[in-house]
Amino acid sequence: MPTKKLLIVLIVITFLVTGCTKETTYSPHQETPSIAPKSKDTEEASYTSQTVTDLSIYKELLRYNLSYDWIDNENIIIFATMKYNLAVNHQPDDPLIIYLYSLNTKKEQLIYKGRFSTFIQEIAWRDEHKFYDFNSDEAQKILQSHGLSITGFRNYYESPRYPISVNGLLAGANSNEDMVTYNIQNKTTTVVKPVTDKLIKPGQSYSGDQSKLIPESIYQYIKWSKDGMAFAFFEIFYSSDDRGLHVADLEDNKVQSIDFGNVSTMAFTKDNQYLIALCDGVFDNRDKEIRVYNLNDNSYEHFLFTDTIAGFNVETFDLLDVCEPYIALRCSVQDKHRGSPVLLFNYQTGQQKWVTSPIYLPYFAKFSPKGNKLLVYGRHYYTETKLDSKFMVIDIN
């Protein structure tokens, strides 16, 4: 039985029933970058209708790390975890609290309050990391006793360096720096992409034997597809600021390399046919860019964010969530007195729309299963403190 020592820093939870239902049809090209076309949405601020949830549990949750997911299009589940305090050797009485919240009734229901062991089993892979998996049988009993019908759980992890897929696979670099997958159930390791053959001598910044050869690059930053049959990852080069971008297809047992050396983050569409890749524009004044790769033929659509959007110039952005054909972006704008508003970008039409106030600061966001709502957790940057953070449901027109 795995050890029960609790060292959870962050929980990321996604249910197998979560997804998007919209179809996508477009013709990617690879030659000419396209500027997102101007539309009514880019000419004037046009905020969608918003419903702010007012949970009575917010004050209780302030002491906890918060995560959430959609159960269906009208109900969300909220997981709050209090981490173990190593400094004072303190273990809270109820380190895990789970609530169900209905958008229709605006009421919350306590599902579980107690120890991790009921819901979670611990999985250790490497000494410096801990991983955790749901105790599915016990979790099913508790949730079903409250009228919930959940067919399965996505595993979750403590360290974002080695995420766990919906199928119970870990992905990451092993001690030899090969990119591997590790099967939690049968404890087997499979090499997906060996470490680069070319070796270089470490520089003065590296500790240890300065004559020892090290790999020219390392593999990092894994993003799984929603069905767990593929994952994307970076190849970080010691001698260059560029990054290699690779997609591992576990079903066909192949690794596809993608030409986007400036990429900063990425995510799969639901059908695994496309990979959304972003360059956030942080380093070297690079263009803020989104590419939509067709993984079948390696072609792509290319969008540059160089124009003013409803009066604001996007300085940098990062990815919140993807639901075909929309991408939710958290943007920093050039007006330093603003927050980090949420931009909704339609990569089929190029339309761009701000869906939060310019002074809004989102922490995370997720599309509903039908893709017609965006659930955001955050606050207004100048009028609210972090303790005032709440959920907000944005209707997507």
Notes on the protein architecture:
It contains three helices and 29 strands. It has a five-stranded mixed sheet, with no helix packed on it. The protein is globular. It has 397 residues and is mainly β.
Structure class: mainly beta
How many distinct beta strands? 29
- What can be said about the biggest beta sheet? 5 strands, mixed
Quote the average pLDDT: 75
Strand content: 35-45%
Name the overall outline.
globular
Ranges with pLDDT <50 over ≥5 residues?
1-49
Rg over alpha carbons: 22 Å
Q: State the helical fraction.
A: under 10%
Strand neighbour order, sheet with most strands: 1-22-21-20-19
Q: What descriptors fit this protein?
A:
397 residues, mainly beta, 5-stranded mixed beta sheet, disordered N terminus
Summarize the structure.
The protein has 397 residues and is mostly beta strands. The chain contains 3 helices and 29 strands.
Write the layout of secondary structure elements.
Layout: E1 34-35, H1 40-43, E2 50-52, H2 58-61, E3 65-70, E4 75-81, E5 96-102, E6 107-114, E7 120-124, E8 130-134, H3 136-144, E9 156-157, E10 169-173, E11 179-183, E12 188-193, E13 199-200, E14 214-215, E15 217-224, E16 230-237, E17 243-249, E18 254-258, E19 265-268, E20 274-279, E21 289-294, E22 299-304, E23 314-323, E24 326-333, E25 342-346, E26 352-354, E27 360-367, E28 373-380, E29 390-395
Parallel strand pairs: 1-22
Antiparallel strand pairs: 2-29, 3-4, 4-5, 5-6, 7-8, 8-9, 10-11, 11-12, 13-14, 15-16, 16-17, 17-18, 19-20, 20-21, 21-22, 23-24, 24-25, 25-26, 27-28, 28-29
